[in-house]
TrEMBL record:
It is found in: Cell outer membrane. Gene3D superfamilies: 1.25.40.390. Its main location: membrane. It comes from the Bacteria. Belongs to the SusD family. This is Putative outer membrane starch-binding protein.
Length: 482
């Protein structure tokens, strides 16, 4: 199935179901049977609704740059600039304290916007399933394609929320009257991830292997399934689905073309969200990626707004010369010892003095899955294969192959993930999944056994705003008293 990619519709379609407010924090609009009869009349409108779901996910991840705060700032290897003083507590210098977030509570402690994505996906699944295949130009294949995209996005969103806040509220269907949504307890992780895997199995069975990476594909569904299984420490199936992904024709970019990965539809990308600049679209942004860039990329940009690679991490983890570091970073204009990330440095001046950072947000790519397979191989007792995958990524980076075994191999896989995936919103989740907080000195002083036992690596919830709307909602244990 090919999406009718009409840029102007993405912004419009995201308003189809979310242009009115409601009292419940799940951000769900009441189902209107009269309106439904008009809207859900053909595949073209399902296409519009599906594009809207992608737009909602994009906007949810971009909110206050939360995608990079959750994955990079919180991991301590990217340091905010002085303008972002309200993020200082999140990293090592602040003791990885997530309970002080002035002016950021609405994006870091509140999951409401993600339920907008969930509800849009629920609507698409329910309504499209009820439509006759004659209403779709492409028949059953097109119908199942839209449903598969919605179920993939729903799985991605729930899995993302689970990794950020811990146990979510699992909503499997639309509510007819969101003014009277019953109070709900948080759903155990096992149940939520089982639901995600059901969605992904459907997507794997029904999606095609698209050439356009900004929509779900068979490869993306297999890759996400591998990530979910690894999160559950089901490494047998993580290996299985990683191998299925790698059969589908992806290839590593040469290190000299490294930054092509984020310029759209690269051969290494598996799943990405479109944020490229276009005169007719609203997918691009001036300030989402720009925090990584200095005045060397954006003329006149102040140094206080620039996020930097943490100096100790730079010294210890990039202690060998490598072409990758040269390609993905650049020295600060007035201090060559400080480096910034330049993965997102494709800048367009669209009006005099106005600059758009025109890159796509790559959510899953081949290097990530190769290293995830290395992790799975190690856990499945296949150390030689794990080492081979590790060295595949090292060789692309311009590093020598290494010979390492035992626990040191596992640590080296983690270290390589940090080097390869810095600035891509995933490192904090690697720390949690791979249980590395007590293994590395830079974290062990702040992540005590008590904090880990009480899941203090998840973010707190904004109980002041969320609890009055759901009396059964509970705070994450660690943040009740910290």
């Amino acid at each position: 199935m090919k999406f009718k990619y009409i840029l102007s519709l993405i912004g419009m379609s995201s308003l189809i179901f979310f242009n009115s407010s409601c009292s419940k924090y799940l951000d769900l609009k009441p189902e209107n049977s009269t309106y439904d009869e008009v809207f859900w009349k053909d595949g073209e409108n399902v296409n519009r609704a599906t594009l809207g779901a992608y737009a909602l996910l994009r906007n949810s991840l971009r909110a206050d740059r939360s995608y990079f705060i959750f994955g990079d700032i919180a991991s301590g290897i990217v340091h905010p600039g002085t303008d972002d003083w309200n993020m200082n507590d999140f990293s090592r210098s602040g003791g990885y304290k997530f309970s002080y977030a002035p002016y950021l509570e609405g994006s870091l402690w509140n999951w409401t916007r993600f339920y907008g994505v969930i509800n849009q996906c629920n609507l698409i699944v329910e309504q499209a399933e009820a439509m006759d295949i004659k209403l779709f130009e492409g028949g059953e294949e097109e119908k199942k394609g839209y449903i598969s995209n919605a179920r993939f996005l729903r799985a991605y969103t729930y899995f993302y929320m689970q990794r950020v806040w811990g146990d979510v509220l699992l909503v499997k269907e639309t509510f007819k009257d969101p003014q009277n949504i019953p109070d709900m307890t948080r759903t155990p992780e096992k149940e939520t991830l089982a639901f995600c895997k059901e969605d992904l199995l459907y997507a794997i069975a029904n999606l095609q292997q698209n050439s356009t990476k900004s929509f779900a594909s068979k490869g993306a569904a297999n890759a996400l399934m591998a990530e979910v299984c690894a999160w559950e420490h089901d490494y047998v199936n993580a290996e299985k689905y990683a191998n299925e992904t790698l059969k589908l024709g992806y290839a590593l970019e040469d290190v000299k073309d490294y930054r092509k990965i984020w310029q759209g539809n690269s051969k290494e990308s598996i799943f990405e969200l479109n944020m490229l600049y276009s005169e007719s679209g609203n997918e691009f942004t001036e300030d989402f990626f720009s925090r990584f860039l200095s005045s060397a990329s954006i003329p006149g940009k102040g140094s206080g707004s620039v996020w930097k690679i943490e100096s100790e991490f730079l010294e210890t983890e990039f202690d060998e010369p490598e072409a990758r570091l040269d390609s993905m970073s650049m020295p600060f204009p007035d201090n060559a010892q400080v480096k910034t990330i330049r993965k997102y440095d494709h800048v367009v001046e669209y009006r005099e003095g106005k600059y758009a950072v025109s890159n796509n947000l790559v959510l899953i790519r081949l290097a990530d899955i190769i290293l995830l397979r290395a992790e799975a191989y190690y856990k499945n007792g296949k150390a030689a294969l794990a080492l081979n995958d590790l060295n595949t990524i090292r060789k692309r980076a311009g590093l020598k192959e290494i010979q390492v075994s035992g626990e040191e191999l596992f640590k080296e896989i983690f270290r390589e993930r940090r080097r390869e995936l810095i600035g891509e919103g995933v490192i904090q989740f690697d720390l949690i999944r791979m249980n590395m907080f007590e293994q590395l000195d830079e974290y062990s002083a702040y992540y005590s056994a008590d904090r880990i036992a009480n899941k203090g690596y998840y973010w707190p919830l904004d109980m002041r705003n969320l609890l009055p709307q759901n009396e059964l909602l509970t705070q994450n244990p660690w943040w009740k008293n910290h």
